[in-house]
Amino acid sequence: MSKKKKKLKSISKLKKEADAVFSKFIRQRDKGICETCGVKKEEKYQQCGHYIPRSHMNTRYDEENCNCQCFRCNIKLKGNMDEYAIRLKSKYGTGILERLHKRKQIIRQFKRKDFEDLIAHYKNIISNKEKYE
């Protein structure tokens, strides 16, 4: 009998899975409270808002760049960026915006292993947190 080779997930599927697990981590970490307006909802109804857009891969999964946001702030108010900047400075100190802007300038290309490691890392954090709640 020949062993069947396990089909590898495509990079785009891995990226989508990484986005989903990272988003769940952020919403869980922030306890479903919108960073910019303070509204609290069940985590599954909130979103993972990015200060620096997701198109910048080096900050796409950056925990300082990403915070829980409600649909209104993240989508309708296009990130509610003025308030987001104020909240980031309060949370991480006055140099955070400059640090994030420097990080976004770094070109980063994720390889299969990068996505797999990221997915495993955040799944582990989520599952450990769920065990103790």
How much of the sequence lies in strands comes to: 5-15%
Note the gap between the termini.
46 Å
CATH architecture assignment of the domain at 29-105: Orthogonal Bundle
Helix count from the secondary structure assignment: 6
Order of helices and strands: HEHEHHHH
Can you give the helix content as a percent range?
A: 40-55%
Output the strand order for the largest sheet: 1-2
State the CATH topology of the domain at 29-105: DNA Binding (I), subunit A
Runs with pLDDT <50, length 5+?
none
> What is the CATH C level class of the domain at 29-105, in words?
Mainly Alpha
Mean of residue pLDDT values: 94
Label the overall shape.
globular
Largest sheet, if any?
2 strands, antiparallel
Count of distinct strands: 2
Helix/strand-derived class? mainly alpha
Characterization of the model:
The protein has 133 residues and is mainly α. Helices cover 53% and strands 6% of the residues. Strands 1-2 form a two-stranded antiparallel ribbon. The longest helix has 20 residues, at 112-131. The model has no long low-confidence stretch (mean pLDDT 94).
Short key terms for the protein model shown above:
single chain, 133 residues, DNA Binding (I), subunit A, two-stranded antiparallel sheet
